[in-house]
Amino acid sequence: MEAQTARITGVVIDAANEEPLIGASAYIEQLKRGEVAGRNGDFTLDGLRAGSYTVRFDYMGYESRTEQITLREGETRRLKVRLKGESKSLGEVIVTAKSEARQLREQAMPVTVLSADQLAGSVSDVSDILSKTMGVTLRSQGGVGSVSRLSVRGLEGKRIGFFIDESPMNDHSDFIDINDIPVSMIERIEIYKGVVPAKFGGSAMGGAINIVLKEYPPRYLDLSYAIESFNTHKATAVVKRNLANAGLEIGGGGFYTYSDNDYTMESPYQKGLLIKRDHDRFSSAAGAIGIKARKWYFDELKINFEGLINSKQIQGVYYNIQHAHSRSKVGVMELELKKKNFLVEGLDLDFKGASAFSRYHFIDTAMHRYDWDMKPYIPVHPLGGEIGAAPSNSTLDKFHVGTKLNLNYILSARNAINLNLLQRYANGHPKDTLRDRAMGYKMNYDSRMNSLVVGLSYDYKSNNDRLLNSLTGKYYFYSMKTILREVYGGHDEIPIHLEKHYWGISDALRYRFMPEWMGKFSVAYEVRTPTENELIGDGYLLSPSGDLRPERGVNVNLGTLWDRRIPNGIFQLEVNLFGNYLRDMIRQTQNYTQTRYENFGEMRTLGVEAEVKADVLPWLYGYANVTFQDLRDVREYEPDSKAPNPTRHLRMPNIPYFLANAGLEYHRENLFGTKRTNMRLFADASFVEEYFYDFEQSIHQERRIPRSMRLDLGLEYSLMDGRIILSGKVGNATGAKLFSEFNYPQPGRTYSLRLRYVLK
């Protein structure tokens, strides 16, 4: 059989100003197959035999262009295609290439993709969107800016990788929350379950969320402003300008969020006690500026400068807090380099490097505490404080350096290898002289952490795309140097200087039974190394845990995906069976003065999830999904002892085990004869069955979060072909009582309005 090793690659640009034409089509007439230009106008047509081809390039509003190309075996032909604008519209363009979202869904590993179409115009934040996704929950302890906990198939917190444009953010998630990212800036959200692609780098245990930010056109302006319940205000801005002659693009953007979060809640610990949340104010602001060059040695060179500041009051739920608050800020400098055919044909380079400085300040110095009737009483310590056992006026300075190198080498049309290296270094300097004085000894010490994760993948695709397999091996290394303070006994200082090495392996397979029906199987032995925050602490409430062991576990997934075209659009059905066995699970525990992370033991998960999506009518889209996840404590003994574990085989607390979502969307263009308009009406419902917020070991304990049903209603109306977008939402429209983790009350009915202006 003749080898299929030739390929055509290149970029499609505007002939007048050399701006990339994102979404342009490249179509080989002899093969009846095509490709859509990506985020930088680039395309690749691979797996070609030697011979002559006619390639047609099309883009709406531009004149078509054809190229006659003759390829030798193994040859790569690079093109720069310039299309000229035209006044009349094109006729029908035949494009058989699949969207990027669908290509991701058809990978070997189980993944859910929320595309830009599903996010467009939404006044929801990221947590609202994710919480309606199969197998995903995102719970918070309050309103805007509160601590949120992401869970994928019951595995939660830092076990789930959090990425922005494939850059790991887990170590920064304590001051950059997933809800800080405006939905209008997101191109798509990828949710990986069980197996995380090696190209992401880092370590995760059972899943990852990758938020892909929009690649804006070279000339662009996007402004939005939203007002929501509880005096919440959100503003975003993005501007981009192309300097065609210099081959540069300059862009900037930012967002601002403010909220009083002053809703009324009923105390979960004292029935009938209504509490006005009067100490939960939150504000956050971020800005970034970047330069992108295309005409230098690299296909793409980016330099970004970013900054973020926020402040938050600490709201009490168990008892009243009126003074404690926190402030944080971070500055980041990033460099990104991309080049196809780096050094040799078929080798693609993607490099990212970043350095950051962060400062976290926590203030808890009040000389009085108050009950819910505002009657004063003594602080936690003669020197003050409302939280814990001692006051605090702490500062934690951290210096971070991270580099990520990804090399993808295409051996042939059916074989490729990928090498990924992720290195991270952190140096933390905590200082809290007030707490040291209150306790009578030094509480926190400087800490240094270094980690390296190396992933090597081999990808195979059969000639007819029936079989796809990805085999990955990983090497994990981390080192830690700090001092731990013995809380009890003689308060001795314990030096910690350790180095750890681990290995992991995974395999993901996808088999296409029919063009529209495929099956997936994946198995992984993963290692999650402790994060910087878990090892170093935060300098005030969270003490270092330099002796932590990494989490290790086995994940298994067996699923099927049916994706077909129907007269009204698409029909998708997906079903997955999954399991997990986790060792050395890390959980947060409380001691006399601070909390710290410790290795808890073993846990196993068994579950099933199913989802259906369909364009029911030309103007009506619907979806429904259901998830059952049974997580059990399987420790035989209590930690570091031979005492029998009293909670063995009990369901793990604070994690929902049965949840379901459903929704409908009505959409019409030019309704009532109005030109260049589009309207969307949507309704989303979420159900969570009653579950425990702590182990319930007898009938006399009531540690349950009640069953809940939430209904959200929304409207989006766009004018002038999407230049002006008005949207509104009623959250929890029925006003149902909702509770989240640890039985924390959530806001009742909420309202949101947003105005967005886009100039392209």
Q: Please, could you describe this protein's structure?
A:
Helix content is 4%, strand content 56%. The chain contains five helices and 43 strands. A hairpin with a 6-residue loop joins β5 and β6. The relative contact order is 0.10. Residues 87-98 have low confidence and may be disordered.
What's the helix and strand layout?
Blueprint: E1 6-14, E2 25-28, E3 33-36, E4 42-48, E5 51-58, E6 65-71, E7 76-83, H1 100-105, E8 111-114, H2 116-119, H3 126-130, E9 136-140, E10 148-152, E11 155-156, E12 161-164, E13 167-168, E14 186-193, E15 207-213, E16 220-228, E17 232-243, E18 248-259, E19 264-266, E20 274-276, E21 282-293, E22 300-313, E23 325-339, E24 347-364, E25 369-370, E26 376-377, E27 392-410, E28 415-431, H4 433-439, E29 447-461, E30 467-485, E31 493-514, E32 517-528, H5 532-536, E33 551-566, E34 569-590, E35 595-617, E36 620-633, E37 658-669, E38 678-688, E39 691-692, E40 704-705, E41 708-719, E42 724-731, E43 750-759
